[in-house]
Specification:
Helices cover 71% and strands 1% of the residues. With 334 residues, it is an all-alpha fold. α9 crosses α11 and α14 packs across α16.
Length: 334
């Protein structure tokens, strides 16, 4: 079969067939009397094999190895192709995301587009300084899509840059809630912590709802971060977690301060005092934890706390009794 007919039947151009021949991938079995290339059925079969392998993403060099190297390992090549394909998909997905981010910013002209692209590139820079400057630029009139800031903060390992990004998000008015919710559900603990810290600094109602969800999270650190933020918003559901933090000496000073702030709301003071008293009376906490609970109770207004302190002033633990007695003198002072 001559080269023209092979090209028609295989869909491979005559020029490409000559290129394959120059690379040694396929050589015509014979020549006609006039010197034209003549392909046998086996040659044509090899051409189809070449095209099949190329369709998998193999280079022509890899195709040659696959067909001619007796030591060739197909499984290793397939694994490599899978890896390369995943990398290509990831790159294309990143490009698609970037294009969507640019579109969401509604640029007025190419200068805006270029400016947004520059900021997005800076947010992905290896330099922490550049990333931080980009975060700060986003609140100085630069139009950076909120979703891009969320993605940046969820992946930011530098605490200073992360702080700048959280501040920028809070100043932006919120958004990116779906991405932040995904961050809370991440299999990586550091991403979950970044997500809840970011949400905690955002004043929106949507942020409060996400913090409520975080309060029931399986990750203890997520719960401990969400509870003080909810207390600052007046959400009394945070009380049990805050009391646990005092008992477990896990950022207990922060937890006690959050309880005190929440207790300034009349509806919450008795609930907080009751929760602290219950833990003191339970008998399941050690001496050090009882002292911390007493100190926390000392800052809670209301009759429930006062009555509890009177009882604690006669406690067997001298440190607890002295703390309670001292606080009572301050409460009785004019």
């Amino acid at each position: 079969m001559l080269i023209g007919e092979v090209a028609r039947r295989s869909g491979v151009s005559a020029r490409m067939l000559r290129h394959y021949e120059s690379l040694g991938l396929v050589r015509p079995t014979g020549r006609t009397d006039a010197g034209y290339r003549e392909y046998s059925d086996e040659d044509i079969r090899r051409i189809f094999h070449i095209e099949s392998l190329r369709s998998l993403g193999l280079s022509l060099r890899e195709v040659g190895s696959a067909l001619d190297d007796p030591g060739f390992t197909p499984s290793r090549l397939v694994d490599d192709l899978v890896r390369r394909t995943r990398e290509r998909i990831a790159a294309e997905t990143a490009l698609l995301t970037r294009l969507r981010r640019i579109g969401a910013a509604e640029p007025a002209g190419w200068q805006d587009v270029l400016h947004i692209v520059a900021l997005l590139q800076a947010l992905g820079s290896e330099s922490a300084g550049k990333r931080q400057r980009a975060a700060l630029s986003s609140v100085e009139g630069a139009s950076v899509p909120v979703e891009a800031l969320v993605e940046a903060v969820l992946g930011e390992p530098d605490p200073n840059v992360a702080g700048a990004l959280r501040w920028a998000l809070a100043q932006s008015g919120g958004g990116g809630w779906e991405l932040l919710a995904e961050g809370l559900g991440s299999p990586m603990a550091e991403v979950r912590e970044r997500a809840v810290r970011t949400i905690a600094e955002m004043p929106n109602d949507e942020a409060t709802e996400l913090l409520r969800e975080a309060l029931g999270h399986s990750d203890l650190e997520v719960r401990r971060c969400a509870a003080p933020a909810l207390a600052a918003r007046g959400v009394a559901d945070a009380v049990p977690t805050l009391v646990d933090m005092v008992v477990e000496e896990a950022r207990d000073a922060e937890a006690a301060d959050a309880l005190t702030a929440l207790a300034s709301r009349p509806a919450s003071a008795d609930r907080i005092a009751t929760a602290l008293v219950d833990r003191l009376a339970g008998g399941a906490v050690g001496p050090a934890a009882r002292r911390r609970l007493t100190q926390a109770l000392a800052e809670i207004p209301g009759s429930t706390a006062s009555h509890a302190l009177v009882e604690l002033s006669h406690d067997e633990d001298r440190a607890v009794a002295l703390t309670a007695a001292y606080v009572l003198t301050l409460r009785d002072a004019p």
